[in-house]
Amino acid sequence: MTTRRDRLREATVREISETARRILVEQGPEAVTLRAIAREMGMTAPALYRYYDSHSELLRHVVGDIYTELTAELQAAIARVPHDDMSGKFMSVARQFRRWSLGHPREYALLFGAPIGGLDPDEQTDFAERCARQFGWTFMALFLELWQKKPFPVPSDDEIDPVLLPQLRRYREERLGVALPLGVLQRFLQCWVRLQGSVSLEAFGHLSFALEDAAPMFELMLQEIAPPLGLTYTPPKE
């Protein structure tokens, strides 16, 4: 049973995280300091250490919360598609990923841009990392489901570049723990590079030199990655 003190602490932690995110969105990651957060909340900066051990821990909780929000939206997009419509699931989750990213450019930059100051790169098993893995598993789970229901052609180990082969094996054994052919993992990463790379170019404004609306280019990318997976591309509904 939670006590009143516990509830007050949870509410304060939530307010700190929400304040940090608001500063992030309005002013950018460099502005997310303990002093700025405390000023917004009418607290002192040292008082925040009662809730977070460091600035890095606070930022990583913000990162984790954003990953969790994004994951929930992707899973909701999948849930809106009939269970047996694998093509529809892939198209829906890819489009929702792009939609969220373009609608939350500051948050996207924090998750997928260059590392920012204040985040400890050695903290690999903390809240943010767990949330990031849950996000990644949203896409991997779709690949697993598709592979189990309707295996698609993949290269054999002998056909995989010898530089990639040990890296894929290490990824499978140390990160996934799932018995999958290495060719499936290569195909997964190929698709992820295309999807996330396409979204990043658009989210960071690197296509504006040529395109005012990159949506058709994104759809061309989906058309190209669908056939190797045995999926059927369908245009988005108007």
Automatic annotation (TrEMBL):
Keyword Ion transport: no
DNA-binding residues (ranges): 33-52
Residue intervals of the HTH tetR-type domain: 10-70
Entries under Pfam families matching the protein: TetR_C_33, TetR_N
Any coiled-coil regions, as ranges: none
Keywords, comma-separated and alphabetical: DNA-binding, Transcription, Transcription regulation
Organism expressing this protein natively: Actinomadura violacea
Name of the protein: TetR/AcrR family transcriptional regulator
